[in-house]
Amino acid sequence: MSARLDELLSPLASDAFDASAAEHLLTRVEFGATPERVAEACEAGLKPTVAGLLEGAAAPFDDSAQTDLIALGRLDLAQAWWLGRLAGEGGCSVLRERLTLIWHGLFATSQAKVQDLALMLRQNSTQRELALAPFPQLVRAMLVDPSMLVWLDGDQNRVGRPNENLARELFELFALGIGNYTERDVLEAARALSGWTVSGRAARCRERWFDGAPKTIFDETRNFDVDALVDATTSQPACARFVAGRLAREFVHPNPETDRVEALADLLRATEWDLGRCLSQLLRSEWFFAESNLRARIASPVEWSSRARRQLGGGPARLARAQAASRMGQDLFQPPSVKGWDGHRAWIGAATWIERERAALRWARDPSTPAAFADVERADLPAAVFARLLPERPRPEWAAALERDLDALSRDEALRTLVAATLCSPEYQLV
Amino acid sequence: MLNRRNFIKGGLQVAAYAQLGPQLFSAPSARTAAADERILVVLQLTGGNDGIGTLLPTGQDAWYRARPTLSRVAEGAHELESGFALHPSLGGLSQAFGEGRAAAVHSVGYENPDRSHFRSMEIWHTGLVPAVTRGESPAKGGLGWLGRAAVQLAGRHRTEPTAVHIGSGPTPLSLRTPDAQAPSLSRVEDLRLEGLDDDERARLALLAQARSARPGSDLRFLRDTARQAADLSDRLDAAANRSSAADWPATDLGRRLQLTATLITGGLGASIYGLEHGSFDTHLDQGPTHANLLLDLDRCLSAFHAELAAAGMADRVLLYAFSEFGRRVAENGTAGTDHGAAGPVLLFGPRVRPGLHGTPPDLTRLQQGDLPSTTDFRAIHAALEHHWLGLPLRPDLPAPLATLLT
Predict the structure, then answer these.
(1) For A130-171, what is each residue's pLDDT tens digit?
(2) CA distance A210 to A215
(3) What do you get for the CA distance between the two ends of chain B, in Å?
(4) Chains A & B: contacts with CB separation below 8 Å
(5) Residue A347 contacts B, CB cutoff 8 Å
(6) Cα–Cα distances in Å, from A86 out to A98, A376, B35?
(7) What is the complex's ipTM, to 2 decimals?
(8) 0.90 cut: is pTM over it?
(9) Angle at Cα B72 formed by Cα B66 and Cα B75, nearest 5°?
(10) Do B283 and A153 touch (CB under 8 A)?
């Protein structure tokens, strides 16, 4: 590993891992945490906490509930099921689910065209299975994933009748980014991906529909098939950079510095795509905890919803939360396009903002919410609500005016007001 | 006790706006829109509309040769002039051409076309062509062309908001400015916060007060958006309280264009509306999909005209439709078409010089299987900005296409 890399992703000093840092880590990795969980992480220290998060993510999982969901055939129930997992319900690893969501956003496939919940959930399960797998393995699985083949017309691409849809998005959106391939590479890659079909919900390559003639991709001429294409694509220097950029945007900052991304890309290459090791270094780095990266991201609807759930417990039913997330702009299994969700400021518009206010009011009015503050004296309510929902940051400017205004209200009304106001405050959206 | 109305009247709201300066949303003003104020509706045909499957070059043998399957639409097409016809779905548009209310420009695009949906869209949205950006993403720091126009109009008219996005997705890049962005909604109900009393509303408004947030910061952006949403909600209810005079298709586009017409006739006062229709990404079995998309479009345009005409406002509204690229001239192996380059744009409304503009495409002269661009899209945007919206000429853009508007 180069000296430069060590410097750019050097670890945080162990005594710098305070409550504020622990809250940042748990918000980024697990969407949010209770004050008790933050204290626990702080006590344990940074290295064991990160190790614990990664061990959890690598542990076996059980998503067999998919069978029932497929039988029910309702997208909204499948969304609710996943949203529950994303909030860590049933003790599943939030980090594994978070990575699954990252891959869903990257290899964005939509039920709107696929029209087969069984295929969509199969893809979801594959992404969960390969959440921490080497990226080339994930790319290969996605290129022959039945829902992906339907989504990008890969199942129609045959020798002599090429359809370049999947090949183009592989280079542009899934693995390399614009500027790292030519139009000719797209046409030739389409031929390398020819022959695949989906029948009986299974994908297979039919020899007679595969274009077996030589193709020239990235200046190399041979009889590329899907495996050779994945190898050639993921060994492009741009590929590690592309994946590093994605991880940095998801975990660190919506607009990460180029040299840090390059360092993370070096690490991906040096570890032969050992995502667990890379995340371990990233999540313990000084960079990850830098002041300018704290509260630098606008929470997605799923993050917002999961954060409230993890901080308050209870809350509206899963289905109601999933429907709210869809209205806020994150319709799981139905991303707006093959580019996925743009994220950050694109989450916030007039209508989606009002939807966040509505969701905040539902959380505040939910009968379960007072339980989190059952032992709190009336006079201590504002401090308790802020400590739980907006910890480790300066009290927002509006807090004093709001507190004055609470005098005329009953304890229940005051609590509802505080929770609603905090959840839909501009400050709360920044994670 | 705080009350939202008093709160606003108390001047805090206005003071907060004053800090924003002449941005997309200027201070609320009592002045109603003057009758001569013009409105531009920009309709994006998302996904790459097949230009030569819309405006058909029926007079060229090369078209039939390149499209053995898809050229069947020649049957039932609406003849326009000199070897071109409109797709059979476009009967209403054909009538608009006949009545002098519609125009199209052939082969619009830019040099070194990008065949990525997303990159090409960014180029159209910002006007930053590859020759300018040299491979960098135009979305990085680029202003949307309509956002820029909206900022200028806001400074002039002091109405608010100047631009609105009618759609369920995020506000498109074309409508973005560095600090604020055009509000986005697809239904009036989207902005109605039910079941709140005035005190509760006042408290929500309190959260959005901008005091210390740095201009350009995410916190400032969040506060601005929150405040705009609340203010627009009040104004929408007044503007949308108007019944419809036209027969609207029960489609997404129908509902959104109807809302656009309602807000225009109801006096919301915005100068720019952005909408999307699609997806036109017809890689596979294009025939029926494309015919349905165009039929929806055609019916919606007819209803839009009827609605505006009934309100006596048809002379104030110009609709411009574009797509990020046309599709490849030759059909692909799956009765569809892959990503191409130049394609036609459409103008619908008053003061267009009716008929076909620009250089008719010659299907025997292709670049990498695609139609080369013969009219720079920025010349059309410049014409819309200068000749329609009355904004000053921009030295960084090509000269406006002078013949487009009368």
Answers:
(1) 999 999 999 999 999 999 999 999 999 999 998 999 999 999
(2) 12
(3) 57
(4) 150
(5) yes
(6) 7, 29, 53
(7) 0.94
(8) no
(9) 130
(10) yes
